[in-house]
Amino acid sequence: MRLDLTGVSAHIDARPIVDGVDLTAGPGEFVALVGPNGSGKSTLLRTVYRSLRPSGGVVRLDGQDLWRMRPRQAARHRAVLPQHSQVTEGLSVAEVVATGRHSRKRPLERDNDTDRAVVLTALRRVGMEGTADRLMTALSGGERQRVLLARALAQEAPLLVLDEPTNHLDVGSQLLLLDLIRSLGLTLLAALHDLDQAAAYADRVVVLRDGRVAGHGPPLEVLTPSFIEEVFGVRAHVGPHPITGRPHIAVASPAVDVRGAPDVRTVG
Amino acid sequence: MTDTLTRVQVRPAPPRRPHPVSGPATGLLLAALVAGLVAALVVGISFGSVNLPLGQVWGVVRAHLTGRGAQADPLLSQVVWDIRIPRALLAALAGAGLSVAGVALQALVRNPLADPYVLGVSSAASLGAVLVPALGGTALAGLTGALGVTGAAFAAAMLSALLVYVLAQRSGRLLDSWLVLTGVAIGYLCTAATTFVQLQLNPTELQGMMFWLMGSVAGASWNDLGVPALLVVSCLAWLWLQARSLNALLAGEEAAIAIGVPVATLRIGLLVAGSLLTATVVSVVGGIGFIGLMVPHMVRFVVGADHRRVLPVSLLAGALFLVLVDLAARIADRPDELPVGIFTTGLGVPFFLWLLRRRARGGSDAA
């Protein structure tokens, strides 16, 4: 599945938030959307969720205009892990994941063996198969996020859009989730806060600033210390990760004294 | 001994069902509710200011249904067929309609504390009803006369729902909090206007209105049943078709859109279905509060929040509940009758407060 955004603009209450953004994610590619708060990441993603109609430009999935599709058809092509999801009271984990089958079912069609198998497979892929009969309200934040990911997987859509999926998760759950989504083989578009995670997991990054693309390309070509300082207003250092040895982005407040810092240099 | 105890303690807990009733047990629950409803209707028809033996009641019913059999004495026939049966059926229909309206409106505003009265629909219906005698001698007498009390109540209820809908949207989207606040505000306005109109009525007119304002299924006739029955059935059928979408909507608007639910259309449909049901019921039986809040909640405690179970179970439980309440209202203070609204509100307010505290504690598993 290939995602193309061409000249996408979006307004909220007649205020322009996103202005002429071009963005592409090829089949199986992980594209990270980064940028300071208020740069328009969530708003841009909403034009792909179909919860905010773009005021200009086109969103295409394999060349088809996403906004001209019927709701169910769109849901068969792209799944979403939203930033804000209400905890559904009174539904079990399996029932929540089964709502992801909506676009595959006729209104009165009962769940069949295929649906149950898809739900169980989705739960197994996120490591939550043991919780199928528990209530959502009985789970921790990290577990709920994995169940919601399972719900998105139950849509069997080749494109997955995620809005800051690691928010509110502890570090272990964050890395687990990122490892998991990268292993799915789907086309991924994810807004991420943590530049180091974006660099470690994404194939390409798109940097938004004030609703426009400030830079795009392979993470370490785009996220240079000078560029990070320009966009985010923090000091940055790219060096080998002390554990993995792979390139690692460290950031510091400009107000902090530099004590014996290594030379700021660019890797990649 | 110790060994046995230890073994008992380490045995893994049996798999817990997420809801007290799920899967095939739901069918049993539905069957039990149907049986309970039939039993309650039979009791409701036999008991009253005069208690009638079941045999006689059955004789009248058979005579009417088959056109054969011994025609019992006309007074008995009249009491059973023209008074008690329509009354029991109207109680069942009103209870079912208000419960299903509650399910629809709770899904619409995604607030489980919402009920059919939160959108001001009920207060508007009351205003419409009191306007009929008040406008009797004015230029509008022709209009109100043509509508009748029921028609005027229905028209006012739908007008208020339309007004709430127009006021609670921004750029074509309904906003949850605006819906509730606008509904409450319109409701207060209608209540104030109703009070003003009541002051203009003479005591005889007022007496009739009071009973209606507090809710009652007394005086039901077969003619009152057709429209509510048609609306309850068609709204339930439409909601049943949307059950999967309603489940998806529980997770929030954005999540539902992502799953492929046409959320904007669905929410307009929910508002229409909820207002139609409430307006129809209120225009026939007056203001019977809290059923739409209590019944769906009790149902969710038992079967969980999946609308494929909540909708049919709420329909039957609501019908059963109001038939029983009407029975209680008739026998609590014989030979006088109390308005059923007093009972439903008396039960509903403590339930509401308990629900509120329970949610505030955050320890809910199935609210």
Automatic annotation (TrEMBL), chain A:
Q: Name the Pfam families on file.
A: ABC_tran
Q: Which residues form the ABC transporter domain?
A: 3-235
**Which terms in the Gene Ontology molecular function aspect does this entry carry?**
ATP binding; ATP hydrolysis activity
Task: Provide the protein name.
Answer: ABC transporter ATP-binding protein
* InterPro entries reported for this sequence: AAA+_ATPase, ABC_transporter-like_ATP-bd, ABC_transporter-like_CS, P-loop_NTPase
Sorted alphabetically, the keyword list is:
ATP-binding, Nucleotide-binding, Transport
- Write down the species: Nonomuraea montanisoli
